[in-house]
Amino acid sequence: MAVTVLGYPATSDRSRGWLRYMYRKATTEDNWDKDGEPHPHWDNVSGEPPASWHRFDLWASMYAMVLMADTTPAWREVYGRVLDELAFRHTGYWAAKDWLDQIGPDPRRENYPEGWYRNLIPRHLRGSYDVIGWTANGVEPWGLQMDPIGADGNLFFKGWFLQLLGYYVYVTGDHKWNQPFEIVRDGENTFTWTHSETAEHLARQWSARAEGCH
Hints:
7 helices; 2 domains
């Protein structure tokens, strides 16, 4: 049972409940490699079409850990364990599944739900324009690029991943993710990065184009 000392920062009962749930969720064994599958408690339904991917649940979960760590830094081992588990899952195939599987234009362009046409696609491009969230890996002028970090585009994958790695260091002081790690891990589509290399790569991409990685 948590004890609150008057005059010192403390988390609420609700926050501790959320922490307990996140810790259980993050430490429940599953497999995000191509031959595995995320546990059903990782959300891949909410926010369709752009956000209905398991990794969005990873990103949404990291903010609470940092906020609570700032409030009760003595629990940093717990917060750090959760952030580490989130980061490791982000290196799996399922975290980059949209980039790896959505090759070329969306074949469903002419059959989207009416709400997508009405709210997400310019009227004059209906039927010939990909809905927001379709990554279209392989389109010109960049061609097929299976490394979700090294690719010319795919900013939202590597940008939020970099943020997650930064939060891990911020909370724990541990630079373990600055040692080489593999992502995707699918035969020839296995790529090696470090925290610093990811940051430097993004910096080069931003400095090369005023409009950024996209």
